[in-house]
Amino acid sequence: MIVYFADRKMQILGQASTNLNDGIFIIDDTKTEYISNGVVIFEATICYAGRSEKDMRKICASGNYLLRKHNAENEFYTIVEREFNEEDKEVTLYCEDAGMDLLNTIAEKYEATKEYTAAGYIDEWIRGTGFEIGVNEISNLKRTLKWESESTVAERIASIATQFDNAEVSYSFEVEGMAVKRLLINLWKKRGKDANVQLRLGRDVKNIRDKESVQTLATALKVTGGTAEGGNEPITLYGYSYDDGDIYVDGTLLKSRSAIAKWGSLWSNGKDIERTYTFDTTSQSELCAHAVTELRKVSTPTKTYDVDIIELPENLKIGDTVYIVNDEGELYISSRLLELKTSVTADKNEATLGDFVEKNSGIDKEVKELAEKLANINTSPGSTTADTLSLTVESSRGVVFTDTLVDTNLTAHVYKNGRKLTDSEVATVGKIIWYKDGKKIHEGMTYRVQGVEAVRVSAQLEV
Question: How many CA atoms are closer than 13 Å to the CA of 434, on its beta-carbon side?
């Protein structure tokens, strides 16, 4: 990893590295990424033995820029704080990628008189900062928003994203050589990707603590929206018609039939468990759509999981979804990386996981049926021997797989008159042939199934 220091005019003043011992080298570093506000923090301790402290104070002055290069990463930060340790000849830096213009500039109270896009609001406060809108996945949405207090521009941008269907923000930079060409604010419906990575209890995960709560459960929502132009009160769902068979509008309430049937007590006489829900729109159809999504979420218990990770794969990015599996309990959870800490000098990755979703309903029935079939006895149709030969197949990772992450070693076991044969004894009886969709694919005692959504594999003892 190499970092370059530049002044406010983007003139390069010096550099430091993790593998150069020329007087300025990085002895400690941490890069922390957050989903919550999109800001990335970079902290580093730099040893400057052999260089004058006067030069270092100029190079590492707070407000200067820092360009970080590591593998394919090209990142741009502002030095927010720096602290010199004169005895040890070290300087510690705290940097953020949002930049001083967004972190220190005040966004004042504001009330929109009409609907604007998220980019329209952001443009109001980033003029003159050098930043511009990059990726924009919510360009089709408009809102009439209001802020009754001041905040920093970075905080205001995060607030805008939240009010646009909980969109997420990131900052990125286009760097060519030693020149920063563009400073970008990206707006995502949801950051990250499905990383197609499994973390298994006993292998990648030390422990899973499962929590369940009905503290926020509701069977009905009292819904309000924004105030229409010229109106005095926020709109409600009164007079709006919606019924999908389960969720329906009843006056100003949005109710769930299945939820009240399940969670109504013997003495409640059908009374709803009500909570309030507000969404800033003057459209009843939009208000109803968002309220339906919210009611589906709150009409079931809240489940959370604390996961102790032994080791996290290095290729994961902030916002990515991973899968946590406990084969024994047939528990399958998807989770996002909400906070990610990486260190080049310490060679480690730490993650904070959240947005847990239990995926018991996501089990691929065909794959499960296949696993059960593989456990059945297969005999060679051409065998006429008086001895009883049977074959079973064992999966190294249980018999329950996810619908997109089939990854297991299948091992055949041959029995003769009820006694398990060794591999050498099997060779004297016949061959284990593996078939996929009726076609021969492998010969041997084991076969690996990996990276497929669903598969039909069978093993045959051919004598």
Answer: 21
Q: In this structure, what are the phi and psi dihedrals at residue 285, rounded to the nearest 5 degrees?
A: -65, -40
Contact indicator for 305, 209 with CB cutoff of 8 Å: yes
CA distances from 331 to 9, 201, 350 (A): 55, 10, 23
CA distance 229 to 111: 13
Residue found under tokens 């759509």: 289
pLDDT at 363: 40
- Pull the structure tokens for residue 304: 């959370």
Q: Is 78 left (phi over 0), alpha (psi -120 to 50) or beta?
A: beta
State the residue for tokens 């999908």.
244
How many whole angstroms separate alpha carbon 158 and alpha carbon 318?
16
Going from the C-alpha of 217 to that of each of 10, 262, 269, the distances in angstroms are 53, 12, 18
Hey, what are 116's tokens?
């604007």
Two structure tokens written together for 26:
């990085």
- For the chain, residues with pLDDT lower than 70 are 20-23, 178, 266, 268-270, 304-306, 314, 327-331, 356-388, 396-406, 418, 451-455
List, in sequence order, every residue forming a beta bridge with 410; answer none if it has no partner: 395, 447
What type of residue is 112?
A
Burial group, residue 92, by CB count within 10 angstroms (0-12, 13-18, 19+): middle
450 near 411, Cβ under 8 Å? Answer: no
Provide the pLDDT for residue 385: 41
> Can you give the pLDDT at residue 246?
92
What is the residue whose two structure tokens read 């999109």? 38
